[in-house]
Amino acid sequence: MRAGQDEPIRGRAARRVGRRRALTAAVLAAAMALTSACTGGGDDKPSSWQGGGNDSEGEKAPKAVATISEPAADAKDVPASTAITFTTEQAQETAVELKDSAGKVVEGTLAADGTSWLPTGALAYGQTYTATVTATGDDGKPATATSTFTTMAKPAKQIRVTSFLGDNQVVGVGMPLIVKFGRAIPTDYRDDVQRRMTVTSKPAQEGIWHWVSPTEVRYRPKTFWKANTTVSYKVQAGGLPLGGGWYGRSDLSVDVKVGPAFVMTVDNRTKRMTVTRDGKVVKTIPVSLGKKSTPSSSGTMVVIEKLRHTVFDTMEELGPEDGYRTEIDYAQRLTWGGEFIHAAPWSEGVQGRTNVSHGCVNVSMKDGNWLFANTRIGDPITVKGTERKLQNGNGWTDWNMSWEQYVKGSALPYEPTT
Q1: Cβ contact 119:107 at 8 Å
Q2: Nearest residue to 287 (alpha-carbon basis) of 384, 203, 216
């Protein structure tokens, strides 16, 4: 039978396989014994192995770890205002690089908390960029993370951002920085805007942004600007989402300088204006303030505009019986309601003794000329002791609020300077 003929063949093959297995086992046993003698212990890994890198070569993986969270890899329609947001672990040094599709490096700044990096300007619309974050630990080995993303197409709905001040303008120590938006910014987007607003002053001074309306935000330091300070402020609103499908049209940057500390103080009790320059009294001027029916406002204001010659016309506002139309020289606006410092030759005989104005600070022609020649937009004036308190919002009344009141207008929590 075929089955009977096959059995002897299977028996011989089995014996040969058995001999080979025995020989193989003996060789393996000898190899294991030799290995144990070389390592000096029973571990089955080299002592330099750390669970990473190329184990066969005994290399260690970097201690540091880097991860990019935004923009995500291969993300599309990314806002042109995007920052590079990332995390690192065990990093002694962190570097961020952003390149466009042509390999050109984009300039930017690392945030103080070390968790994000912001380009110095809005990115181009509809372009591809690659971000690389490199973290280096105390072992000197770098770990990298990359993300390639594409920005959105240019949006149709854009909001203009403007500054009241222009480059190289010289202003007074009470000048607030004023930024306006062409459309109301929703409350829940104002913190995003404020994070993109930076102020740098030399010497450094503590200050904060304050929203006076949905379309206007201002900045002032805790106390008046120091004389001769240089101030640079920037709003990185280009491509920034501002709610309802609207985006910032462009970035904004302005450089200004603060002049001498020219400060005016008016006391209704003495009917005198005391003028100081850099802390020293330089002039005392007799004044006439508002009469009882039209009192001047008590509070701290700043010079808003200067008009060498103008006409005060209240005929439409007050009517033909109480209204007037008068030519005025050396006018300096203090409130939107119509309070000015100005020359009033008709009241020179009572200046320093009696209040006869409609709310303005009347001075002589000579003193009006002197003040006009020495003041700047933003120079502060404080009026004391009148029957009426200055209403906040009636002019640039940023200094009429306490610091505690002012910081409440910020969309971000106030963090005192350390």
Answers
A1: yes
A2: 384
358/339 Cα distance (integer angstroms):
8
Sheet holding 297-302, edge to edge: 280-286, 272-277, 262-267, 380-384, 297-302, 388-389
Question: pTM above 0.90?
Answer: no
Residues carrying an active site annotation: 342, 360
Count CB atoms within 10 A of the CB of residue 132. Answer: 17
Dist. CA 99–CA 105, nearest whole Å = 4
Which amino acid belongs to residue 51? G
Q: Are 76 and 150 in contact (CB under 8 A)?
A: yes
pLDDT 10s digits, 200-257? 999 999 999 999 999 999 999 999 999 999 999 999 999 999 999 999 999 999 999 9
